Structures are given as C-alpha cells and as structure tokens.
DNA sequence: TAACTGTACTATATGTCATAATACAGTTGA
DNA sequence: TCAACTGTATTATGACATATAGTACAGTTA
C-alpha cells in the first residue's frame, strides 16, 4: 500500500503523510479504518519506527487520524472534510505558480489546458464517489 | 534590489536565484547587465559571500549568467530564453497541484479562476514588454 | 502470560545550509 | 607600480532537520 523513496529530496515522513492523505481523500482508507501499526509499517517499508510515528503524530495533531494507546491508530470521522480545508491552502501555491508561468511567457491557454487535463484525469480515474 | 528572509524555510541561496530569475524575466535586469559583486551583495544583505557565490555558480552553470574573473558577473544574452525553457518544467508541478485540488473536492472552476487571476495580475502589473 | 498497541527518551550519524577566515589570480584606475 | 576591486577556491566550524538505533513504559487482547 504505502511506498517510500529514500533517495527523494522530500523527507520520508512527509511522503507517508502525503500518501495517507491521498488514500483518505480517494476513499481507499475510510473513516474508522485502522491504520497499520507503527512497527508493522516500519518493517514493511524497511524504515525506522520513529519515522512512522512522526508522520502519525502530525496527522493526529491535525485531527485527520486519532490514536488509542494499546489499540492502534484510526482514520477520523471528519478526516475528509479536514483534508479538504487543508488542501484548499494549495490554491495560493497554484496562484504563485501561475504567476511564474505568466512571467516566463507561457501562454495562459496552455496553463488552463493543463488544469483541464488534471481534472479530466481525475474524473476518468473514477476517484469521484 | 535583492531581499532575503533568513527565517524562511527556503535556503537563502535559492531565494537569490529565484529573485534574479524574476528580475531577468521582468526586464529589470537586461542581458549584458553587470550583477552586483559577490562581496558587495553579501554586505548589502548581511550574508556570507559564499552564499552569494553558491547562487551565482548555479546560475552560471545553467548559462543564465556568465562570470569573468577579475571583472564581474553578467546576464547572458539568451538568459530570457533559457529561463523560459526552465520555467516550463513547472507545468508538471501545476498539473500535480491541480490533481491534488481535484482530489480534495475543490471545484475546477475555482482553480481555473485562480489561474485567470494570476494572469490578469501579471498583465496589470505591466510586466509584459 | 505472551504478543501486540502507542508513546517517550537518549544517543548517534548524516547531509544541507550558512558562517568564518584565508588565500590566489586577474583587472582596473590613480 | 600599487591599492582596490573582481571571481574563485579552500578548510574549519556550527546549526539544523532527518533518520537510525536501542531501550523502556503503560495499555490492550487473546
């Protein structure tokens, strides 16, 4: 399920957070589902348990998951809504990125077309419930 | 001219590269223009000279600027074209970002509108020659 | 009771970033 | 010629984030 690239510039714990967010948003991990334990996932990915816990801790802090000591970690009921709000902040990044492309002389239609492609790829992927 | 935020997560040398790229693309720094010297810019920004040199070295390697030992650094003649190609790679980033937003349930029209805003802000900014 | 769960802690290693201090060779103008 | 600039190179040092390693504790479950 999870995959990790140790050679990536992006920290491993961020990769795990990012993947878990996508699993929740795409419905692969539904609210209430128990996540793989810190130790089992660390062994599966050949990664230190502390790295997994760092990812889980941050998601727990944000309310996306919740942990029950002695039992395990679970996807929160309002995880999808929380992630929706969280991802909305990326609109600012997209705005900056579009400004960069405008400055570099890339045509507006080309950028708009890229957005269209991203959305059609998403729809065809059957990720809409 | 240049500004630096030491507290930013983005490395200082990357900030300088980014700003210089924007100055070139916006016409503030034209081809042939001599850049501030490593030492003078380091003093102006209260930054170590090595940090400036790291930024200049990378831009020199990419051909955006060229350096003449004993004289100084200058904006290359084909800098704008080089930067155009370089920035085009960001279309891939924008594609990924748009997919993220689609997955998070943000409406396509909202994303398209953000792109429109970025381009209209660019035009009104008078950055087109 | 054994085996699992999350959590906490210290120590260590690594790589990137930035600073500090020199040093060298080339250019320029007084 | 000489002082003052230019880019370039080198070594040492410190701060910081990331990741690993090992250990430990408390709660849960079959």
The CATH superfamily name of the largest domain in chain A is Winged helix-like DNA-binding domain superfamily/Winged helix DNA-binding domain
Major sheet strand order of chain A: 1-2
Mean of residue pLDDT values of chain A: 93
N- to C-terminal separation of chain A? 21 Å
Total beta strand runs of chain A:
2
What is the number of domains of chain A? 2
Instruction: Determine Rg of chain A (CA atoms, Å).
Output: 17 Å
Shape descriptor of chain A: elongated
Overview of the structural elements:
The structure is a homodimer of 129-residue chains. Chain A has helices at 12-25, 38-44, 49-62, 79-88, 90-103, 108-124, and strands at 65-68, 72-75. Chain A starts with 11 loop residues before the first helix and ends in a 5-residue tail after the last helix. A two-stranded antiparallel ribbon of chain A has the order 1-2. The first copy, chain A, has 2 domains: 12-78, Arc Repressor Mutant, subunit A (Orthogonal Bundle); 90-123. With 129 residues, chain A is mostly helical. In chain A, helix 1 crosses helix 3. The structure holds a DNA duplex (30 and 30 nucleotides).
Present the secondary structure layout.
Two copies of one chain form a homodimer.
Chain A (H helix, E strand, L loop, with lengths): L11 H14 L12 H7 L4 H14 L2 E4 L3 E4 L3 H10 L1 H14 L4 H17 L5
Antiparallel strand pairs in A: 1-2
The structure holds a DNA duplex (30 and 30 nucleotides).
């Amino acid at each position: 399920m999870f995959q990790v690239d140790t050679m990536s510039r992006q920290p491993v714990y961020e990769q795990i957070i990012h993947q878990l967010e996508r699993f929740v948003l795409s419905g692969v991990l539904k609210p209430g589902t128990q996540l793989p334990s810190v130790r089992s996932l660390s062994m599966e990915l050949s990664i230190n348990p502390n790295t997994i816990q760092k990812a889980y801790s941050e998601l727990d802090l944000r309310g996306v998951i919740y942990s029950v000591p002695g039992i395990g970690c679970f996807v929160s009921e309002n995880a999808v809504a929380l992630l929706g709000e969280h991802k909305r902040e990326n609109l600012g990044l997209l705005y900056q990125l579009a400004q960069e492309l405008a400055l570099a002389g890339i045509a507006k239609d080309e950028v708009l077309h890229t957005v269209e492609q991203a959305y059609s790829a998403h729809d065809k992927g059957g990720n809409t419930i």
